[in-house]
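Continuing the batch. This is chain 6 of the set; chains 1 through 5 are on the previous pages. Same settings as before, nothing changed between runs. Recording input and output for traceability.
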Amino acid sequence: MWCPNCKTEYRDGVTVCSDCGAELVPALPVEFEDLVRVAAVADETEANLLADFLESEGITGLELVEAEEEIEGEMTTVIQIDVPANQEKKALQLATVFLSGEAAKEAQKEFQEMTDEEKAEKLKESHDRQEAKKNIHVYESATEKYKDNLSSGQTFTIFGCLGLVFLGLNLAGILHIFHEPFQYIIAGLMFVAFIGFGLLSFKKAKQYKEAISAEADLGDAVKNWLAENITAEKIASFTEEDPDAPEEAKEILIIGKIHDELMAAFPDLDSNYADQLVDTFYEETQNK
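Output for chain 6:
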């Protein structure tokens, strides 16, 4: 969870910023994420086609930005493609494949074969996607969610109870921080709310704790399926159509095909969890 004002990250279960009191949001808008440049092209159409290609391969939250760049001694306007820093490696690989390989030629060919109305519609769709706010979702396991909510529950509950003790000491005349009735009311409601948030976090923690076993069983089932169905021979077959492609392009293609087959076998599997399992599986097969 994030504070939209302070840009501070909080654990799951926390709902209010402790610094400014703002309500937390699941993710910051793209403009607050660290963006890095992965490519820059002079042609707007090519930039939009590259953006479409990156998004079709799973890159989220990218932006197209006009920038001035010196090319052969002259300042030229280019379209810069920026992506969130945590997706830089994959985006760079994809952009390299697109700009130097057949993907760019194929996309350009398809675009040129469109009617003027279809071209305008495609460019509008691409532009609208860049304007839309996008959140980046990274898979968080049930174990991680359990720990986060348990920690938040403990923090909120302890702070709320200590606050009520502090309030009681004021009422008893031992401390003299509050003097007006409305101060007691506001402070009391705040501390009770903290306890309420704590109990809610404990409830969520219990739910996630119960889900840990099921998630582990699902993970084991997926790993067994991958081991049985994605053999070295099958991995090799994924790149038979283009054996001379760059190694980075082959890796992206292989991982994408494994992901697609896995989702076909487990249609209810979280796509981000599938990405995590496929990446781990592929790395392990390469290290054998």
